[in-house]
Please model this.
Amino acid sequence: MAGQTTVAAVQRNDTAGSGNIFQRFLAGTELDTRLIGMVGALALIWIGFQFVSGGIFLTPRNLWNLSVQTAEVGVMATGMVLVIVTRNIDLSVGSVLGFVGMIMGLMQAVWLPPLLGLSNPFIWVIALAAGIAVGVVIGGIQGVIIAYLQVPAFIVTLGGYLVWRGGAYLLASGKTIAPMDATFKLIGGGPMGSIGATWSWVLAAIICICIAGGILLGRRQRRRFNFPLRPVWAEMTLTAVGCAITIAAIWVANAYPWPVGVANAYARDHNLTVPDGGLFISTGVAIPVLIALGAGLVMTFVASRTRFGRYVFAMGGNPEAAELAGIKTRWVTVKIFMLMGALASVSAAIATARLDAATNALGTLDELYVIASAVIGGTSLAGGVGTVVGAMIGALVMQSLQSGMTLIGLDTPLQSVVVGIVLVFAVWLDTLYRRRAK
Amino acid sequence: MLDQPNNKSTPLVEMQDISVSFGGIKAVADASVDLYRGEVVALLGHNGAGKSTLIKVLSGAYARDSGTIRVDGQEATIANPRDAKKYGIETIYQQLAVADNVDAAANLFLGRELVTPIGTLDDAAMEAKAREVMGRLNPNFRRFKEPVKALSGGQRQSVAIARAILFNARILIMDEPTAALGPQETAQVGELIRELKAEGIGIFLISHDIHDVFDLADRIVVMKNGQVVGSARTSDVSKDEVLGMIILGKVPPGAIAGPGAMQG
Model:
């Protein structure tokens, strides 16, 4: 065993020692070239818009907004990965978002206050829990029809797309429901719905410790099982880059101050004197962004460390083999759609809280952005392949494009044209990459 | 070994009068086969003769319309692959039935993963066990971290076999076990079958090519048009006689005729 390991380790060093600096870097760090390509594309989009917009894209204010806008689609993209990996599709997520958002809105503004009193502190909890339960039930119904009645997911969720959008209208006869509960609104972000400078730095510290700890732990595991180790410089570089990105992101979030009006009102309420040039209060990381990061973490864990996740990928790779191996493939499919429904509900909470209202148009076209995010993020429509991290970066790419185009004043129809072309182009590139990788 | 299975000992598996039809077409009609401990039974017949369908009933992949299955003399309820595994029936399918996009250890434990006390996958333990089993089957196998699709036909075959024996199979079903393999790998599989047999495992070999299995089998059962033509000990018949059974349904003197035997 020891002899074999040495051979493998030597081979590893050989590949790491050959080629140009970039190839050596890739071999040493074992980073996925697709991931690097995507980060490169993101950087290109950001720098491009920075120039075209005359320097207003890469500002704390815009980047902070971008992070909040990405949260809604990003949360759902983590679930769409599992759906697409098992060769299914969910076209209903935007409508489910609208329907569940309406339920959450009605709970807070119409149904619960007469029962519990207007400012009952439990209203938002009940509304949120009920909304998520409804999302899970909707996903469960669609999943059962797909898995047990064998209706293709495309058709079932296309039906769901119409049913839940119509349902959202019927629930409130097309009216906009407002306002949301004060605590619930924090889920949507804004100056109050952010964690401020101190907690943001605490978060940065935790993330950096996790990165370093994870890399150390991974190294120890590899040594324990005699797997080839990454070179020390590669481990160092990975840790440094990870921490640098984290710190930069937190710094940007903290560099975005509360709007003057909100800061002044806060100063008045707390008997603070406003200094010359206004009161600078850091916004910090927004709560919806925290929720999205949490969803990403949980879903990555589910996909890679649980039986359920293992089955999802095995089913995507070879559905027949999974069935013959004794996996209850139908039940797994139902669970995937229930999970998707729950995530759509979380996004519904973010969207309604951010808007401070529930409308029947909420989440329109979201399904397409969610699917596009997953696919741009490397999820293969042929099944079996995809990562949660990729899908979230995909969501960031999509949202960056959109927000950048809005910033430079491109008309909405033209935005759609660009997004459509970019999606097709990205998938074509991916096809080329996969063909070469084979 | 073959001379021992006398009428006194109970067969490991008895499939009696099994019928399966797909939309009015009888794929298998009143077929009966049995298998004893430490015995290798080859199920022969042309493509479409019904041998794979019959055996998929035993492995739980297909539901039967009628007939009974007994394991160790007790009537067995097998409605899906999970039930079959409970009786120690493991199957290596013709198309290997491995999940291409996950690694060898994940395939070995697919559907029966080892988990840590908190319920997460115990990849380390699974990989250690996978190395142990694969070391026994195919000592040259070293590509544990790669998706199975990157492996050669023989390596994939060893993964499929390792999965079957990992959980102490008592009855092993191998559907065209050597169809995708080169001569050297075929010899390896043959060696393995002899080893498993020596451990007392009963093995069904399914093949449309008599040359693949004649030397490995203790007994052959020939099927044609969904019916059993007949069965014979390999010591009592020649290859040519078995070919006659497969092609014409003609039962030689050394064999026991079944319901599908050529009349007259």
